[in-house]
UniProtKB/TrEMBL annotation, chains A, B:
<dbReference type="InterPro" id="IPR000965">
    <property type="entry name" value="GPR_dom"/>
</dbReference>
<keyword id="KW-0560">Oxidoreductase</keyword>
<dbReference type="InterPro" id="IPR016163">
    <property type="entry name" value="Ald_DH_C"/>
</dbReference>
<dbReference type="InterPro" id="IPR012134">
    <property type="entry name" value="Glu-5-SA_DH"/>
</dbReference>
<comment type="function">
    <text>Catalyzes the NADPH dependent reduction of L-gamma-glutamyl 5-phosphate into L-glutamate 5-semialdehyde and phosphate. The product spontaneously undergoes cyclization to form 1-pyrroline-5-carboxylate.</text>
</comment>
<dbReference type="GO" id="GO:0055129">
    <property type="term" value="P:L-proline biosynthetic process"/>
</dbReference>
<comment type="pathway">
    <text>Amino-acid biosynthesis; L-proline biosynthesis; L-glutamate 5-semialdehyde from L-glutamate: step 2/2.</text>
</comment>
<dbReference type="Pfam" id="PF00171">
    <property type="entry name" value="Aldedh"/>
</dbReference>
<dbReference type="InterPro" id="IPR016162">
    <property type="entry name" value="Ald_DH_N"/>
</dbReference>
<keyword id="KW-0641">Proline biosynthesis</keyword>
<dbReference type="InterPro" id="IPR016161">
    <property type="entry name" value="Ald_DH/histidinol_DH"/>
</dbReference>
<dbReference type="InterPro" id="IPR020593">
    <property type="entry name" value="G-glutamylP_reductase_CS"/>
</dbReference>
<dbReference type="GO" id="GO:0050661">
    <property type="term" value="F:NADP binding"/>
</dbReference>
<keyword id="KW-0521">NADP</keyword>
<dbReference type="GO" id="GO:0004350">
    <property type="term" value="F:glutamate-5-semialdehyde dehydrogenase activity"/>
</dbReference>
<keyword id="KW-0028">Amino-acid biosynthesis</keyword>
<dbReference type="InterPro" id="IPR015590">
    <property type="entry name" value="Aldehyde_DH_dom"/>
</dbReference>
Length: 451, 451
């Protein structure tokens, strides 16, 4: 089947799903859960093939340890938690049919804005095989069709999971072509041209992958390329909170996009707060790259950190770098405005935090910083769909339209305006004799099922 | 000033506006209204210069009559209604600061999703000079900065209006650079590259203009290229409604994007309904292009229409054409499914209508048609921000993300997640001894002013 055919089949499948009830979509998710349970051994055998190849590449230095780890579906409860994820999505409220605007335009002329699926999604990701299952669940729950493109490292796992999903869908009312899988890299560039059929691209992967996709398509792209988060230690920061929050934001999972990369500290608390912050970081193996002012204070307080090479001078590029590792850079600022300006210029609009006991300063920071997440006294690591209470996430968006921050089911929906009339024409409205005026009164309906 | 500087200034202006109150933004709108009142003669003199050039081009056949008409600010109440538009926008509720998700993650850890401005808008439009004032009002009200690029036909009017706006802003707290104007066509292609500073492009103009913009930028584009709306006359259509709705949808303003271009009619009401529908259209000067089945019925009933050349055979391209004129094409279908399929394949996802007294059929149509507006027994011409009750509109979007259909102030906003903690770190949550669980309880706040 050509890629154009795949995309057209996906579009047709999207049309068919629109006619299904919430129960019918949920039933498909239950069937996927059941099939995953039955096929566990098969899938893990396929994953073992991928892992053997990956371990060879690891030994040859051609694959990173962290990628190799992400590929592995066999560890502890990973398979079970993937399965549970399908049920978790199934148990979320239906995101479709909600009315967000209802207006009586005139007697017998009612307008409703109703949430509906976006259409055909193209999801491009790298290693993790379980993403196939996560994204499939979210797409079906939200009434979208999806074309999935995974990394070649996980080909066997990916095929096995795809077979499980197809088997489940064949028993459900969701058409088989609602979830399709493609492999080679060439296919991506061709799919990116099919804006007639594909409504939204969601890339999950490296900065390079995302940038490359954005440069090569007219289809809207939702996601994030870089995650450069900052924490600002304000002059009214509580010392214990500053130490704990910077430490957790950096070390809880340094490779995550919501880990902190830059710490800004106010001049007036440099002597009082910075040594303790630095000590805690360095004790956890973090390399701290400082501007001159912060280096002087830290080096004096922690000569052993200078000796061990963990305390360093920063270079200008550090303030535009997502380290994704146990490294962070530090800059001293003189004011809240300077901190906000630095973040808006160098940050990636992902998640930024102020540490302060001063409410007015916190409000100014949260209003002034242009980011998907603006935090007051909380770790940047909270930027996550599960922690936000969405159940799960499709990804995190640093876009400034449609969905921003962790994207759950709602990020996969849009709305349509439904107008119910009794033959009204526009020519009857306006000014002058015999013309009607609009009423524009709010209506109470909250769900399309009430209409 | 280079274009990059213009864009950077706009970004800075956006940051400054975030700190302003609703009252301060409204005050700027009042000042613009006042200055427009004072400068009426100056602006109309500038418009006369544009009109003189336009009339010359019109005489030489280099400009269309409709474009010439759109340029003219001097006719009847056009200037006053432009002025009134500024006050109308001022009087709308503030779109910023609304909370659409509020969740207690844990004791003392509260998450709010708060509406905020998108950033820097680039609005590209063709003739109408009053668009400068409309868009400026909407941008300021919603806390965005805007770079405006108008057509060269309206250069003088545009400069005059721009001076009025700058004079007004210089007396307000909104920075001057929040509204900037650029002229030449070259500038557009350069601006489209500045994705670092510009957050959203809104083109208002021809299909060619919009397509060209989409092909040349990584910045998200909101708007519509084509407006190909369809009306389906179902087998249970009321005859009078069918005649009136098709007629209004076509003739009320044929150049509008929400005018109907294709009429689908069910086989079973072809004999009973189609002659009257056609007669009413032809009496209003519409050219009706029919497929074989509908031609046979109409030609038999209306031999005079054949003689006058207003009743014609359609060609296959007609069903993909936005005529923007007193022309429409007709196709006979055998079922509701066939009508839905035709619309999803040939329509532009703008606005489509079913005429029927059958509720089940109407619901199937409104669920199955993938368009910004799905109508039941109402003219497609209702697709408009004012008629929808938004006060005014920035444009109409056929996009399937962010904003769809008429875009008012809400379409110019996005949200940010604000998290208010007391030093919570992610490492404290999870499973195991001493770990905390998330509470995820809804919170009641509806506006950021309540926090």
């Amino acid at each position: 089947m050509s890629l154009k055919e795949i995309a057209r089949e996906a579009k047709d499948a999207f049309s068919s799903i629109q006619a299904l009830s919430s129960e019918e979509r949920d039933e498909a998710l239950q069937l996927i859960f059941d099939e995953l349970k039955t096929a566990k051994n098969q899938v893990l055998e396929a994953n073992t093939l991928d892992m053997e190849a990956a371990e060879k590449l690891l030994a040859e230095g051609k694959m990173s340890k962290s990628m190799c780890k992400r590929l592995d579906l066999r560890v502890s409860e990973k398979y079970e938690s993937m399965m549970q994820g399908v049920l978790d999505v199934k148990n979320l409220p239906d995101p479709l049919g909600h009315i967000s605007y209802a207006n009586k335009i005139d007697d017998g002329l009612e307008l409703y804005r109703v949430s509906c699926a976006v259409g055909v999604l193209l999801v491009i990701f790298e290693a993790r095989p379980e993403v196939v299952v996560n994204i499939t669940s979210l797409a079906i729950k939200s009434g979208n069709a999806v074309i999935l493109k995974g990394g070649k490292e996980s080909t066997h796992s990916f095929d096995a999971l795809s077979n499980v999903i197809r088997k489940a869908l064949s028993k459900s009312k969701v058409p088989l072509d609602a979830v399709q899988l493609v492999h080679s890299r060439d296919e991506v560039s061709q799919l990116l041209q099919l804006d007639e059929y594909i409504d939204l691209v969601i890339p999950r992967g490296s900065d390079t992958l995302v940038k490359n996709i954005k440069n090569n398509t007219k289809i809207p792209v939702l996601g994030h390329s870089k995650g450069l988060c900052s924490v600002y230690v304000h002059e009214d920061a509580d010392l214990d909170q500053a130490v704990k929050l910077v430490w957790d934001s950096k070390t809880n999972y340094p490779a995550a996009c919501n880990a902190v990369e830059t710490v800004l500290i106010n001049q007036s608390v440099l002597e009082s707060h910075f040594p303790a912050i630095t000590k805690k970081l360095i004790d956890s193996g973090v390399e701290v790259r400082c501007d001159d002012a912060s280096y002087a204070v830290a080096a004096k307080a922690l000569p052993e950190a200078v000796a061990s090479g963990k305390l360093k001078h920063s270079v200008v590029e550090d303030y535009d770098t997502e380290f994704s590792d146990l490294i962070l850079c530090v800059k001293v600022v003189n004011s809240l405005s300077e901190a906000i300006q630095h973040i808006n210029l160098h940050g990636s609009k992902h998640t930024d935090c102020i540490i302060t006991t001063n409410e007015a300063a916190a409000k100014r920071f949260m209003t002034g910083v242009d980011a998907a997440g603006v935090y007051w006294n909380a770790s940047t690591r909270f930027a996550d769909g599960f922690r936000y209470g969405f159940g799960t996430e499709v990804g995190i968006s640093t876009n400034k339209i449609h969905a921003r921050g962790p994207m759950g089911l709602e990020g996969l929906t849009i709305y349509k305006y439904m107008l119910r009339g009794h033959g009204q024409i526009v020519g009857d409205y306006g000014v002058g004799p015999g013309k009607r005026s609009f009423k524009h009164e709010p209506l109470p309906a909250k769900h399309v099922s009430e209409l």
